[in-house]
Design brief:
243 residues, alpha+beta, Jelly Rolls, Arc Repressor Mutant, subunit A, 2 domains, 4-stranded antiparallel beta sheet, 41% helix, 22% strand, globular
Length: 243
């Protein structure tokens, strides 16, 4: 059997979120709510429960020795669990601070209940393996990219990646898509772009101004939009930078 056929055979065992859990496990959880910018878990906390995001979005941050925070992943309902990495690596210390970006509704379930479920259910084990492997694959392709390029090209790489993320999200709707031009609102603040690229907020602002002037981004009411024309211009500039 070809590899692609084997992958297809197990395609259903992908993703590990609240909705794939058995009903008897979900009933053991409790619903919790977080406001925007509220900390859900902090780096250094002891792992006691897993949080499954039911609605809203959160971001993960890790702190480096120089005091800078780097936003390195987003948590959404489709793959929305907090604590799985620590649970499966058998480490009791949370490695990253997770902060609510929007109003977040989550279900909190005892870590031992989830661990017992995964260890005794091959389908759940496959789901977790697929999720974690996908995360590592994606990070391996982008890790360190921002730190090998200068200033404005960091922003260009960030915008390309963020565009692809938003485009892939299931909830892309009229609030993010300009139907007439095909432009998508990337939905990132200056703070988030600065944290992700290691630049200052002031530098991010200057870079975005230059990108507006060159037609590489479009903005309306402080919202950054990117469409096919802008993507082509960004790609051309990055290609020139690599020559």
């Amino acid at each position: 059997m070809k590899l692609e056929s084997l992958w297809q055979t197990y395609q259903a065992d992908v993703g590990f979120n609240l909705y794939c859990l058995p009903e008897e496990v979900r009933r053991q959880g409790r619903t919790v709510y977080f406001h925007p910018h509220e900390v859900i878990v902090s780096k250094g906390d002891t792992l006691q429960s897993l949080y499954f995001i039911q609605s809203g979005q959160a971001i993960g941050q890790r702190e480096y020795a120089n005091g800078k925070d780097l936003t390195y992943f987003r948590v959404q309902p489709e793959a929305g669990n907090l604590g799985l990495l620590e649970l499966l690596s058998r480490k009791s210390t949370i490695v990253a601070t997770i902060i609510a970006m929007t109003e977040v509704k989550a279900v909190c379930i005892d870590a031992s209940v989830i661990y017992d479920l995964i260890m005794n259910d091959i389908h759940m084990m496959r789901r977790c393996l697929s999720l974690i492997a996908s995360d590592f694959y994606r990070e391996s392709g982008t890790s360190g990219r921002y730190y090998y390029v200068e200033g404005i090209n960091r922003i260009r790489y960030y915008l390309l990646e963020r565009y692809n993320q938003v485009k892939a999200e299931k909830d892309v709707g009229f609030h993010r898509l300009d139907v007439s031009t095909g432009r998508i609102c990337i939905g990132s603040s200056y703070d988030e772009m600065a944290n992700s690229t290691g630049l200052s907020i002031r530098t991010v602002g200057r870079c975005l101004q230059k990108l507006r002037e060159s037609g590489e981004v479009y903005s309306v009411h402080q919202r950054i939009l990117i469409g096919p024309d802008e993507l082509e211009k960004i790609g051309d500039q990055l290609q020139m930078a690599q020559q």
